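Example 3.2
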Amino acid sequence: MELRRTEQGFALYKEKDCIGTCAVRPAAQGADIAALCIAPQWRRRGYGSYLLKEVLRTFAGYDREKATVFSAPLPADPGERAFWAKFGFAAEGGRLYRRRTPDLTAVKFVQDFLSARLVHPRLCIDATCGNGGDTAFLCGITALDGRVLGFDIQPEAIRSTCARLEQAGVPAGRYELHCQSHADLLQYVQPGTADAVMFNFGWLPGADHGVFSTADSSIPALKAALEAVRPGGVVTAILYSGQVIGSGEKQTVLEFLRALPLKSFTVLVCDFANWAETAPLPCLILKK
C-alpha cells in the first residue's frame, strides 16, 4: 500500500489502483475530515482503519503531548458511526469530534515546574541531551543574554540536539554542546552560578538500548550539579527502571537524594500513583 498526498487530502493506493480517499483540511489543532471513502470492493478489509489512522497520525492525533481536535460529518448509518467511535469520535452538535487532552508526562511535569519557578534564568544545563528536547526547552526559557550548556557522551545525541536547535532557529551563541560526561560539568560552570540542571536518565531514544546511564556516573554528576546550582536553583532528575536497565540506578539515586541534608536541600519525589512501577519518576531538588 502507498499513501499519497493530494490537493484534497490523501489517496490510498494498492499497487496502481486508488482504493480510498480522504478529504481533509488542516486546523490549528488537528484537522477537519470532510469525507473518507473506501472503494466498495475493498471495504471491510481494514483499509479504512489504516487510512484514518494515518490521517490522525499526520496531524498529531497520536501525539501524547499535544492537544488536538478532529471533526467529521455525522453519518446516518449506525455501522459507520461505530467505525468512527473506534477511533475516539463522538457525536457533538450534529458532527463527530475527537478531542484529545495532552497527557502529563514526567518530562512535561518537570518542564512546567521549571517554567513556573524560574524567571528569565541566565545559565541552565541539560546534563543529558538525548535528542535535544530539554535543551530546546531551556533555550526557550533562558534570558536572551543567557546561555544553555548541554552534555552527552554519545556523539549521535550531540548531533541530534544540534540539528533540533538549528531547526528551531535558536541562535548558536545561546548554547554550547559538549560530547562529554555530565560528571565533568564543573569544568565549564563555576559553582553556585547555574539556575537549573536537568537530568533525564535512561537511554537515548531511537538508539541502542544497550547503552544507558548507571549510578556509577549519575551520582557523581548529581553531586556536581548540586554544587553548580545557586541557592534557589533547581536540579531535576527523571529516573527509570525496567526489564532492560533494571532498577539499580533508580534505587541508588533515590537513596542518595533522600540522604541530602534538609538544611541545604528540599527534595521532592513525584510519584504518579496510578502509573506502573516502572513508569518514569520525576525528582526535584531545590537548593536553599
